[in-house]
Amino acid sequence: MTQRFTLSLDAMGGDRAPAVVVAGIGLALQRYPAVRYLLYGDEAQLVPLLEAVPAVAAVCTLRHTAESVGNTDKPSHMLRQGRRTSMWLAIQAAKEGEASGVVSAGNTGALMAMAKVMLRTLPGISRPAIATVLPSQRGEVVMLDLGANSDCDAQNLSEFAVMGDVFARTVLGIANPSIGLLNIGAEDMKGNDAVRTASALLKASPLALRFHGFVEGDDIGAGTVDVVVTDGFTGNVALKTAEGTAQLYASFLGAAFGGSLLARLGYLLARPALTKVRKRIDPRRYNGAMLLGLNGICVKSHGSTDEVGFANAIGVAADLVIHGFNDRIKREFSELKISGVMSAVVAGH
Amino acid sequence: MTQRFTLSLDAMGGDRAPAVVVAGIGLALQRYPAVRYLLYGDEAQLVPLLEAVPAVAAVCTLRHTAESVGNTDKPSHMLRQGRRTSMWLAIQAAKEGEASGVVSAGNTGALMAMAKVMLRTLPGISRPAIATVLPSQRGEVVMLDLGANSDCDAQNLSEFAVMGDVFARTVLGIANPSIGLLNIGAEDMKGNDAVRTASALLKASPLALRFHGFVEGDDIGAGTVDVVVTDGFTGNVALKTAEGTAQLYASFLGAAFGGSLLARLGYLLARPALTKVRKRIDPRRYNGAMLLGLNGICVKSHGSTDEVGFANAIGVAADLVIHGFNDRIKREFSELKISGVMSAVVAGH
Known about the structure:
homodimer; alpha/beta; Isopropylmalate Dehydrogenase; 16% strand
């Protein structure tokens, strides 16, 4: 972890910016002491925050801009009019090599649009995807796409499989990750054209040995595979349904433990165990969705997260830099191209 | 609950048939003492089971058939070759009015195909949908479609909204149910063509006042709306993701409570509360998916459920009969037709 590099941060993105951004850097300092930050945002707000925490100020360079992207701003409008926003400038720093990666908790659509325009997609990849790591009964699962592409064809899904595979090997350190395609049944005939064709393509590719086949929604939590591939519509709904179910379970637990004196006594004794579970599924722990497939590292933090969550998003970007994820994916795609897989994918479609 | 009617049961459908079917009737007897059953299946297996429980035998009429649909049988093949199976004959009894509804825990694809051919869709409905009731923080939510239709257009989704609305009003007894369309964001521009067009159609329909707009995956567990409308691909993935997340949460709880002596002591005191929660989210409690939009009542039980789950599936069918669901939906659709809504839906597409 002594690798030295800089991340650029959109200090004005997110519901509780810029305070959460500055506090998040403070927490990230412990795990990544060698990382430096370029902070884009309003100096009138940022200077007092930095002055209050000298350890954070020492690793930050402040770049003032008065403009920022709002949550309801349209991505297309921001592409034309948002070139002085903290989000645009933070991505630009990554594009120009001043920073090794960029993190923002702002408007997802605008971030995706700006990152695509400025960083552009890697050779061989037609569309970037949003990916995240989720807890499962067997460890961790990487799932993509989570909302960048509402409609995906078989080629898009196959490319997501390659990106997920590289991520699992490089960042999660899984030697032979298994890849599953999210569907509504395990049989070949199930689902729509896109998943059936993508399955056929993957079975004929060098990924075939690691391709598990179709998986279903409950396989995400079960950890049946290491990589879950799906279109952005289904992936977004699945991710948020999982979050909603965890909240429902927690609220039922809360109600049950408040029920009687005995239950409340039980709660006191059970509390350490319950806290452990809450930590294991804490969405802040898994905060930091990666925009994979771009010519640069770009991480989206949840807009409503706190400093713990923002520190994790910084950690996700740092890990991608440390593991050289983009170089690996570039190399793998060119090797796949040479071996004819991606052209088979293109031809097959 | 003194209404007297008959349900036909596919006694050979499901992993643990016919024992679970007979035991399920035994449990359902308590809640629905006036219901009678036509049991289709192998008499060599069924006669001893019925002889062992005279109370169940007293409400059942056994109709022998040696054939049944297997889990891997193709629906199209069963439509041609399966006319002597317990599933086919049970649906036929509902079609011919011998039974007021049919329940099967067998092959979903075959059940849907046979039910469509025999019962046919209700006037005004182009495609039936699979619906179920789920627990939420604010009570219960009905969600559809859960897998009958992988690809849905705006018209399909609008029809599902009408069916879900009628179900919530008649069976769940909610006077003014709110309806949400599952999407990946709340803004108008989010999602794919089908959901955007369906939203516009619903806003221009008599359902407009009850149409909440777009909802996201976490709104299911939150109970933001009473009816969640989606295509069968997304709905199936969302349902199974919710099940998988609940299992993940339960397994994390189990691990945490097994951690130390103190945690195990805590578990003993917390057990009544935990059991309460487990019951509240018990998938058996919500077993019984309804095939809505057909000219008859047809309920699909989970194939791996036990007698508690199967009894609930019987209860779902019984409730649909008792509340006259199909008559209500027929009336509502003809009223909508008269008021020009469904033709607007058709024209709008």
